[in-house]
Design goal:
The chain is α+β, with helices and mostly antiparallel strands and 370 residues long. It contains six helices and 26 strands. α1 packs antiparallel against α2, α3 runs antiparallel to α4 and α5 runs antiparallel to α6.
Length: 370
């Protein structure tokens, strides 16, 4: 292989692919980035067997070929390259990388050991959605997914594509986030996608802009943004029937300034630090919201905020971290809290006076206060 590439394009390609390089791998080749030069372009690939990243950039090729280089090392080198074209020359064991006056001789890995990546089928169903809408959807919903690998189904985000819309849902059994957006070009299908992979796709969409193409297949889903592709395996199993969990009515509705509530919540919750599962109690009364947390070792904290309360007053307690995540997800100046009583799940929604908001629903299970 011998080629010449623009530094910025090469750096972006390496940065994109190395996101999927695992720190702990059972197969040494999985720690590498495969570089393949042919037909006037350089294709970079990496995978951890669960998610695979691929990107192609235009290059000047003197000699086509394929090399496998250590991903982390390559990423660190490229990040510090001077502003000059990058030249790569070598095959197999020794690869020379030159940028300006800097020259690095990197020991290559066995390219034959790099696993073949499953590219999407040409006839696979696909849809298209605006990149910014997709990225916002994922970042609002994926935060509700579980980190418990013992329950793999809950570590994913359920994607339902139907009726011209993409609906995403995630739950860790303590909270549930659901939201949908309209397709530019619709597709039909479902996929239970690992939250980690979906967040990488959202990050790529945000960086690329424009539109994202979703390709839904049996066992995998691919996301295309320009010359980049991310393919991930799906999680096996059945996602909970989350629609049955959404309440169809509420007794009390509260509208409150989101930023003020988030700041007060963080102040009051300080006393909960160091004591696991300490609830934050919220009391809604006519025109006000009172927050209170009690820690037997540290003491108490309380704060009151003005709020528009429509309905009967009540008290309810939440995990403060989960409540804060819900407030962050809404993103609007005001948030609406819908309640039935102190023992049933509450629903957080974005709120604007003109009603033009995301259809995000963030359901939160209450905690019992002893």
């Amino acid at each position: 292989m011998k080629l010449r590439a623009e530094r910025a394009e090469f750096a972006d390609a390496v940065s994109w692919t190395t996101r999927t390089v695992g720190a702990r791998v059972t197969l040494p080749a999985l720690s590498g980035v495969l570089l393949e030069a042919a037909d006037g372009k350089l294709t970079c690939r990496a995978t951890d067997l669960e998610v695979a990243a691929e990107v192609s950039i235009p290059v000047q090729i003197d000699r086509p070929g394929t090399v496998l280089l250590p991903g982390r090392l390559l990423s660190q080198l490229v990040a510090r390259f001077p502003e000059a074209p990058v030249q790569i020359d070598g095959d197999g064991d020794r690869v020379e990388i030159t940028c300006g006056r800097a020259t690095f001789k990197v020991r290559g890995m066995q390219a034959e050991d790099f696993p073949s990546l499953s590219a999407p089928a040409d006839d696979a169903p696909q849809g298209q959605i605006k990149a910014d809408a997709f990225s916002r959807l994922v970042n609002q919903v994926a935060r509700a997914a579980s980190n418990d690998e013992g329950r793999p189904v809950l570590t994913g985000v359920q994607l339902d594509a139907s009726d011209g819309r993409l609906t995403a849902a995630a739950t860790d059994s303590y909270r549930l986030a659901v939201r949908s957006v309209a397709f530019e070009e619709a597709v039909e299908g479902t996929a239970l996608v690992p939250a980690r992979s979906l967040l990488e796709a959202a990050k790529g969409a945000s960086e690329a802009g424009g539109a994202v193409t979703l390709i839904l297949e049996e066992g995998q889903v691919s996301f295309l943004f320009g010359d980049r592709r991310l393919t991930t395996k799906l999680i096996e199993g059945s996602f909970p029937n989350y629609r049955a969990l959404l309440p169809d009515a509420h007794e009390t509705s509260v509208v409150i300034d989101r930023a003020a509530l988030a700041e007060a919540l963080q102040r009051v919750a300080i006393v909960a630090m160091g004591q696991a599962n300490t609830p934050l109690e919220l009391t809604f009364e006519d025109g006000s919201l009172d927050l209170q947390a009690t820690n037997q070792e540290m003491g108490d904290a309380a704060e009151a905020l003005p709020a528009e309360v429509d309905g009967e007053g009540l008290s309810i307690a939440f995990n403060p971290a989960y409540l804060l995540a819900g407030l962050e997800a809404t993103g609007t100046e005001q948030v609406r809290v819908e309640l039935r009583d102190g023992l049933k799940p509450a629903v957080l929604k974005p709120h604007r006076e003109d009603g033009d908001v995301d259809d995000l629903t963030y359901l939160l299970m209450p905690m019992r206060v002893s």
